[in-house]
Amino acid sequence: MEALGEIEIKVEGRVGGQTLSPELVDIDEIREVLGQAGDLLFPGVRRSQRPRISYEIQEGCVRHRFRTLMQTVIGFGAVLSQVEMEGQIDFLHERSAAAVENLQRLAVEKDYVVTLRANESRLRIDRTTHYERDEKLWVDAEFYLYGELVDAGGKSSPNIHLDTEEFGVLRIATDKEVLKNADANLLYRRFGVRATGRQNLSTFEMDRNSLSFLKLFDHEPDYSEAYLDGLLRKAAPAWEAIPDADAWLKEIRGTAHA
What we know:
alpha+beta; 6 helices; CATH 2.40.50.140; globular; 12 strands
Protein backbone atom coordinates (compact mmCIF):
# COMPACT_ATOMS: atom_id res chain seq x y z
CA MET A 1 0.00 0.00 0.00
CA GLU A 2 1.33 3.42 -0.97
CA ALA A 3 2.16 5.89 1.82
CA LEU A 4 -0.42 8.62 2.43
CA GLY A 5 0.07 12.16 3.66
CA GLU A 6 -2.15 15.00 4.81
CA ILE A 7 -2.82 18.47 3.46
CA GLU A 8 -4.80 21.00 5.46
CA ILE A 9 -6.69 24.16 4.56
CA LYS A 10 -7.43 25.98 7.82
CA VAL A 11 -9.89 28.89 7.80
CA GLU A 12 -10.05 31.33 10.72
CA GLY A 13 -12.40 34.25 11.21
CA ARG A 14 -15.73 35.34 12.61
CA VAL A 15 -19.34 35.04 11.43
CA GLY A 16 -21.95 37.29 13.02
CA GLY A 17 -19.70 38.00 15.98
CA GLN A 18 -19.03 34.31 16.59
CA THR A 19 -15.71 32.53 16.10
CA LEU A 20 -15.82 30.49 12.91
CA SER A 21 -16.69 26.81 13.37
CA PRO A 22 -17.94 24.05 11.02
CA GLU A 23 -21.62 24.58 11.91
CA LEU A 24 -21.36 28.26 10.88
CA VAL A 25 -19.97 27.53 7.42
CA ASP A 26 -22.42 27.46 4.52
CA ILE A 27 -22.36 24.42 2.24
CA ASP A 28 -21.51 26.61 -0.76
CA GLU A 29 -18.38 27.81 1.03
CA ILE A 30 -17.37 24.22 1.79
CA ARG A 31 -17.98 23.28 -1.85
CA GLU A 32 -15.77 26.16 -2.96
CA VAL A 33 -12.88 25.08 -0.73
CA LEU A 34 -13.22 21.48 -1.94
CA GLY A 35 -13.12 22.67 -5.55
CA GLN A 36 -9.92 24.61 -4.96
CA ALA A 37 -8.25 21.59 -3.33
CA GLY A 38 -8.43 19.45 -6.47
CA ASP A 39 -6.97 22.19 -8.67
CA LEU A 40 -4.22 22.95 -6.17
CA LEU A 41 -3.08 19.33 -5.87
CA PHE A 42 -3.63 18.02 -9.39
CA PRO A 43 -3.92 20.91 -11.88
CA GLY A 44 -4.60 19.74 -15.41
CA VAL A 45 -5.17 16.10 -14.37
CA ARG A 46 -8.45 14.37 -15.14
CA ARG A 47 -10.40 12.83 -12.26
CA SER A 48 -9.90 9.35 -13.75
CA GLN A 49 -6.12 9.84 -13.88
CA ARG A 50 -5.39 11.25 -10.41
CA PRO A 51 -5.28 9.34 -7.12
CA ARG A 52 -8.21 9.51 -4.73
CA ILE A 53 -8.41 12.48 -2.34
CA SER A 54 -10.25 11.71 0.89
CA TYR A 55 -11.67 14.52 3.03
CA GLU A 56 -12.40 15.28 6.67
CA ILE A 57 -13.64 18.50 8.28
CA GLN A 58 -12.63 19.08 11.91
CA GLU A 59 -13.40 21.45 14.77
CA GLY A 60 -10.92 24.14 15.78
CA CYS A 61 -11.61 27.10 13.51
CA VAL A 62 -12.55 25.25 10.32
CA ARG A 63 -9.95 22.72 9.29
CA HIS A 64 -10.39 20.99 5.95
CA ARG A 65 -8.08 17.98 5.90
CA PHE A 66 -7.32 15.97 2.78
CA ARG A 67 -5.44 12.68 2.59
CA THR A 68 -3.68 11.62 -0.59
CA LEU A 69 -0.38 10.16 -1.79
CA MET A 70 2.66 11.25 0.23
CA GLN A 71 4.49 12.05 -3.00
CA THR A 72 1.77 14.59 -3.83
CA VAL A 73 1.94 16.08 -0.33
CA ILE A 74 5.72 16.52 -0.55
CA GLY A 75 5.42 18.18 -3.97
CA PHE A 76 2.64 20.48 -2.80
CA GLY A 77 4.71 21.47 0.24
CA ALA A 78 7.54 22.51 -2.08
CA VAL A 79 5.09 24.63 -4.09
CA LEU A 80 3.83 26.38 -0.94
CA SER A 81 7.41 27.17 0.12
CA GLN A 82 8.17 28.60 -3.34
CA VAL A 83 5.05 30.80 -3.34
CA GLU A 84 5.87 32.12 0.14
CA MET A 85 9.49 32.81 -0.83
CA GLU A 86 8.68 34.59 -4.11
CA GLY A 87 5.50 36.31 -2.89
CA GLN A 88 3.74 35.68 -6.21
CA ILE A 89 1.93 32.90 -8.11
CA ASP A 90 2.74 33.65 -11.75
CA PHE A 91 4.86 30.49 -12.03
CA LEU A 92 2.02 28.17 -10.98
CA HIS A 93 -0.08 26.08 -13.33
CA GLU A 94 -3.08 28.12 -14.50
CA ARG A 95 -5.61 26.11 -12.49
CA SER A 96 -3.49 26.13 -9.32
CA ALA A 97 -3.00 29.90 -9.65
CA ALA A 98 -6.75 30.38 -10.08
CA ALA A 99 -7.40 28.27 -6.96
CA VAL A 100 -5.04 30.43 -4.87
CA GLU A 101 -6.69 33.57 -6.28
CA ASN A 102 -10.10 32.23 -5.23
CA LEU A 103 -8.85 31.59 -1.68
CA GLN A 104 -7.34 35.10 -1.67
CA ARG A 105 -10.72 36.52 -2.72
CA LEU A 106 -12.45 34.54 0.05
CA ALA A 107 -9.97 35.90 2.62
CA VAL A 108 -10.57 39.50 1.51
CA GLU A 109 -14.37 39.27 1.22
CA LYS A 110 -14.94 37.50 4.55
CA ASP A 111 -11.90 38.82 6.44
CA TYR A 112 -10.71 35.23 6.90
CA VAL A 113 -7.22 33.90 7.47
CA VAL A 114 -6.64 30.89 5.23
CA THR A 115 -3.61 28.72 5.94
CA LEU A 116 -2.48 26.00 3.54
CA ARG A 117 -0.31 23.30 5.11
CA ALA A 118 1.57 20.33 3.68
CA ASN A 119 3.93 18.64 6.16
CA GLU A 120 6.03 21.48 7.60
CA SER A 121 5.34 23.93 4.78
CA ARG A 122 2.71 26.63 5.31
CA LEU A 123 1.25 29.50 3.28
CA ARG A 124 -0.88 32.16 4.98
CA ILE A 125 -3.46 34.06 2.94
CA ASP A 126 -5.31 37.01 4.46
CA ARG A 127 -6.60 40.45 3.49
CA THR A 128 -3.05 41.88 3.58
CA THR A 129 -1.60 39.39 1.07
CA HIS A 130 -1.87 39.82 -2.70
CA TYR A 131 -1.65 36.41 -4.32
CA GLU A 132 -2.93 37.36 -7.75
CA ARG A 133 -1.47 36.81 -11.18
CA ASP A 134 0.25 39.69 -12.96
CA GLU A 135 -2.08 40.72 -15.79
CA LYS A 136 0.88 42.08 -17.77
CA LEU A 137 2.08 38.51 -18.29
CA TRP A 138 -1.13 37.54 -20.10
CA VAL A 139 -1.68 38.32 -23.76
CA ASP A 140 -4.40 37.61 -26.31
CA ALA A 141 -3.63 34.51 -28.35
CA GLU A 142 -5.18 32.13 -30.84
CA PHE A 143 -5.39 28.37 -30.30
CA TYR A 144 -6.15 25.30 -32.40
CA LEU A 145 -7.79 22.66 -30.20
CA TYR A 146 -8.74 19.11 -31.15
CA GLY A 147 -11.12 16.64 -29.56
CA GLU A 148 -14.64 15.27 -29.26
CA LEU A 149 -17.53 17.71 -28.88
CA VAL A 150 -19.44 16.36 -25.86
CA ASP A 151 -21.87 19.17 -25.05
CA ALA A 152 -23.30 22.32 -26.64
CA GLY A 153 -25.91 24.89 -25.68
CA GLY A 154 -26.76 27.28 -22.88
CA LYS A 155 -29.54 29.86 -22.58
CA SER A 156 -27.68 33.00 -21.54
CA SER A 157 -24.06 31.94 -22.13
CA PRO A 158 -23.97 29.51 -25.06
CA ASN A 159 -20.87 27.35 -25.27
CA ILE A 160 -19.44 24.09 -26.49
CA HIS A 161 -17.53 21.51 -24.45
CA LEU A 162 -14.58 19.94 -26.26
CA ASP A 163 -13.00 16.83 -24.72
CA THR A 164 -9.28 17.05 -25.56
CA GLU A 165 -6.43 14.68 -24.76
CA GLU A 166 -4.09 17.47 -23.68
CA PHE A 167 -6.36 19.69 -21.57
CA GLY A 168 -9.37 17.55 -20.65
CA VAL A 169 -12.82 19.07 -21.27
CA LEU A 170 -12.64 22.71 -22.35
CA ARG A 171 -15.59 25.09 -22.18
CA ILE A 172 -15.50 27.45 -25.16
CA ALA A 173 -17.89 30.42 -25.36
CA THR A 174 -19.72 30.66 -28.66
CA ASP A 175 -22.64 32.39 -30.34
CA LYS A 176 -26.18 30.99 -30.49
CA GLU A 177 -26.21 31.34 -34.27
CA VAL A 178 -23.24 28.98 -34.62
CA LEU A 179 -25.15 26.19 -32.91
CA LYS A 180 -28.49 27.12 -34.46
CA ASN A 181 -27.20 27.05 -38.03
CA ALA A 182 -25.15 23.85 -37.77
CA ASP A 183 -25.80 21.61 -40.78
CA ALA A 184 -25.84 18.41 -38.73
CA ASN A 185 -25.69 17.09 -35.19
CA LEU A 186 -22.37 18.15 -33.69
CA LEU A 187 -22.33 16.00 -30.57
CA TYR A 188 -19.89 13.13 -30.12
CA ARG A 189 -17.96 13.91 -33.29
CA ARG A 190 -14.30 14.85 -33.51
CA PHE A 191 -13.54 18.43 -34.50
CA GLY A 192 -10.81 20.99 -34.58
CA VAL A 193 -11.73 24.32 -32.99
CA ARG A 194 -10.04 27.62 -33.68
CA ALA A 195 -10.44 29.83 -30.61
CA THR A 196 -9.12 32.98 -29.00
CA GLY A 197 -8.03 33.23 -25.38
CA ARG A 198 -5.30 34.43 -23.08
CA GLN A 199 -1.81 32.93 -22.85
CA ASN A 200 0.91 33.42 -20.25
CA LEU A 201 4.08 34.92 -21.72
CA SER A 202 6.21 33.26 -19.06
CA THR A 203 4.80 29.71 -18.90
CA PHE A 204 2.91 29.67 -22.27
CA GLU A 205 -0.10 28.22 -20.45
CA MET A 206 -3.58 28.84 -21.78
CA ASP A 207 -6.22 30.50 -19.60
CA ARG A 208 -8.98 27.90 -19.88
CA ASN A 209 -11.64 30.37 -18.68
CA SER A 210 -11.00 32.88 -21.48
CA LEU A 211 -11.72 30.75 -24.56
CA SER A 212 -14.03 32.10 -27.28
CA PHE A 213 -15.05 30.28 -30.44
CA LEU A 214 -13.86 31.38 -33.90
CA LYS A 215 -14.27 28.41 -36.21
CA LEU A 216 -15.17 24.72 -36.22
CA PHE A 217 -13.64 22.33 -38.73
CA ASP A 218 -13.49 18.59 -39.31
CA HIS A 219 -10.42 16.94 -37.86
CA GLU A 220 -8.83 13.75 -39.11
CA PRO A 221 -6.31 12.66 -36.45
CA ASP A 222 -4.45 10.25 -38.74
CA TYR A 223 -1.13 11.49 -40.12
CA SER A 224 -1.26 12.45 -43.80
CA GLU A 225 2.07 12.92 -45.55
CA ALA A 226 0.34 14.25 -48.67
CA TYR A 227 -1.47 16.91 -46.65
CA LEU A 228 1.78 17.95 -44.95
CA ASP A 229 3.59 18.17 -48.29
CA GLY A 230 0.81 20.37 -49.60
CA LEU A 231 1.16 22.77 -46.67
CA LEU A 232 4.93 22.92 -47.19
CA ARG A 233 4.50 23.78 -50.87
CA LYS A 234 2.06 26.57 -50.00
CA ALA A 235 4.41 28.04 -47.40
CA ALA A 236 7.61 27.76 -49.47
CA PRO A 237 7.32 31.13 -51.32
CA ALA A 238 7.10 33.03 -48.02
CA TRP A 239 10.45 31.58 -46.91
CA GLU A 240 12.42 32.26 -50.09
CA ALA A 241 13.93 35.54 -48.80
CA ILE A 242 15.16 33.94 -45.54
CA PRO A 243 18.67 32.43 -46.01
CA ASP A 244 18.61 30.23 -42.89
CA ALA A 245 15.05 29.36 -41.81
CA ASP A 246 16.15 27.32 -38.78
CA ALA A 247 18.28 30.17 -37.41
CA TRP A 248 15.45 32.64 -38.01
CA LEU A 249 12.96 30.46 -36.10
CA LYS A 250 15.34 30.11 -33.17
CA GLU A 251 15.73 33.89 -33.06
CA ILE A 252 11.96 34.41 -33.08
CA ARG A 253 11.47 31.82 -30.32
CA GLY A 254 14.22 33.37 -28.22
CA THR A 255 16.31 30.18 -28.20
CA ALA A 256 19.06 31.30 -30.59
CA HIS A 257 21.52 31.90 -27.73
CA ALA A 258 20.26 29.27 -25.31
